[in-house]
């Protein structure tokens, strides 16, 4: 199909997400015909290195043969059945395997289709828990400044990004925020750890004053994505867990973007020191949130799937004879067998290929070759957590993000800057030559933008 025909039809028929459609009168859409590994290809055969994993979802490359095979096998057995009153092997197996992998104590999976829906579930489940416990007044939430948790109304109420919130403010229940431990805002000479502890003091002050009306504190562990890949010290998570325990407030870990190995461990919460001293053999196990939200990479970037994991304590509060005490929330495609098989294949790849160890080697190599990028006189705050890199560019252009995006396409790179923050979140299958190319061509792009 010719590019021009597809582009015209797309502009006429498709309302694209997070997009001012009028811009595409001058800025062409990019028509993609196929994908392979870390690359996307248009209808003319031009390729683009997917440096952002197609909105942070693709872990093991486009058209991965092992995930393809798992989905094809499932297609011949069961494409879908409702999960209310019925069950099936892929959903059960995925729940069991995640319970083995997740922080200790998380063992119940509630399925949905996308990240925002998972956040809605966690918020509703938290408030409903307190209602079932005879404390209906505990129905408020707090989040970090500059946090992003989704764009449905409940998720948007705990999102602190003005661009997304302002148009819908009249529809939202306003929630409070506490300072972000983003180390870019630390005082001169203050370490990331000390700044995180200082921010935790502000969290404690808020909880001390408002805990009676609070259901939960929701946080993106280690990296706040839409805040420009704001990174912070894991000690903040340790303190948050201890403070939530002290004041009787749930902790919701939004690992939609940072879970599934993206920060260097399978779940970002694993990197937080446990609140209490543990025996030597249990050290390094991290913290356990009351709710863990997963999506994006859970299916390897193949099919819409999200879920919320919760503890036995949460689950028991809903387990009763009365229907009204149950969690009466549903999605038509909850636990879709095809999506669950994709997720199981994704977990198989993690287990069989030693992905986390391999990623650590890739991170070390990338950080070595990125020296010229980190040291560029117009680059600020070069930072890295796992398979996430980010930095700001000191550029005079007000339309920096669009210019950078276009210059990237010219150089076979798919980039999606946030303001003047450039970030890389490549698929885990990225190779040495592709990493070299990413650094070299990014340096060339910066020279055009400063």
Task: Outline the structure in words.
This protein is of the alpha/beta class. It has 2 domains: 68-349, 3-Layer(aba) Sandwich (Aspartate Aminotransferase, domain 2), CATH 3.40.640.10; 354-397 and 405-429 and 437-450, Aspartate Aminotransferase, domain 1, CATH 3.90.1150. The protein has 15 helices and 16 strands. The protein has helices spanning 3-13, 53-56, 65-75, 89-101, 115-132, 153-157, 162-165, 192-210, 235-247, 312-318, 337-353, 355-369, 371-374, 400-410, 432-449, and strands at 32-36, 39-42, 47-50, 106-112, 140-144, 176-178, 214-219, 223-224, 230-231, 250-254, 291-294, 306-311, 379-385, 388-393, 413-414, 421-424. The strands form 4 sheets. Strands 4-12-11-10-7-5-6 form a 7-stranded mixed sheet, sandwiched between helices. Strands 1-2-3-15 form a 4-stranded mixed sheet. Helix 4 (89-101) packs parallel to helix 11 (337-353).
Give the biggest sheet: 7 strands, mixed
Tell me the fraction of residues in β-strands, as a range.
Answer: 15-25%
At CATH level 2, the architecture of the largest domain is 3-Layer(aba) Sandwich
Distance between the termini: 38 Å
**What general form does the structure show?**
globular
Side by side, the strands of the main sheet go: 4-12-11-10-7-5-6
Number of domains: 2
Total strands: the figure is 16
List unreliable stretches of 5+ residues.
Answer: 278-284
Number of helices: 15
